[in-house]
Write a structure and sequence with these properties.
Strand content: 25-35%
Order of helices and strands: EEHEEHEEHEHHEEHEHHEEEEH
Number of helices: 9
Distance between the termini: 29 Å
CATH class of the largest domain: Alpha Beta
Shape: globular
Length: 340
Amino acid sequence: MDSVDAHDPPRWRPGPPLAGRIKTIPDDFRVDEIPVYEPSGDGEHLFVRFRKTDLTTPRAVDALCRALGASKREAGWAGMKDRHAVTTQWVSLFGVQPEAALAAEVEGIEILEAIPHERKLKTGHLRGNRFELRVREVDDPDALVEALAALRVVPSYFGTQRFGRDNLERASAWLVDGGRPPRDRVQKRFLVSALQAAVFNSVVAERVRTRRLASVIEGDVLQTQRGGIFGADEDPEAQGRVDSGEVMPTAPLPGKDVRWATGEAGELERAAAEVWKIDDAAMGRMGKLGRGTRRGVLVRPVELEASREGDGVRVAFALPSGCYATVVMREVLGSVTSAD
């Protein structure tokens, strides 16, 4: 187990990677948000569905707020979307009229819908995302289509977006070494989540390395589809339920309230925490920004379709909230090369 597992963990799919390049242009990577609920049509918060191109979510929301005279502090969105892509998502704006939103003209943004709702949209109010990607510079399109169609299970690694250029170094300097924390709460949250994700990736990488991603390990903590967790030793049919997709093994996002696995699975998790020097003091510094939770170690892409498109390949699939399309594509491409 090594710290390199955060950025470059092993692939689950056997065999050599195939040649291909994604995100050559923004239109090669399209994302559509799948909301948990639809806005009601009544209330002081306006839910605005918009399509952005080559913009981060915070910059897009900032531009919308400036154009509509809305408070950025009162704005809410369910999840962050890629910059180098064409992405569709919802934002809630307080006190804005639908007519004004629909008439707004903002560079790089197309307003699609504007519907009132009673409450602010919050992080995590998201069922998942649908992705449509074009892979270019493909040596063997038929082989790539076949490999993509065969994907059933993928490690639910955090993508490199979570770590940024230096988030892990900055997180360690603060949370592990006890240095000065950032003043900005958003930056603090980014650093906490980066270090948590590094531990998680290390645990999943070891399960992949030992070919036990979808196998129940002694002492595992399992998760139901609705998010409830329980010990594997509580259910003699645990492996069968994992095989059917009813439950899945989990790995920790460390924090003072996290439930650690026991037995062999617990030893694996503690070893990963030691790699990143996560102890009680570090978890204490995370505070309320990182109380600790667990996340499933695998993801099953749904509605996956792959086909040749000229000299490239088109692929579409849906993933639950918090899962990365780039991680799915990395399984077949080895390294995700893009224009970023």
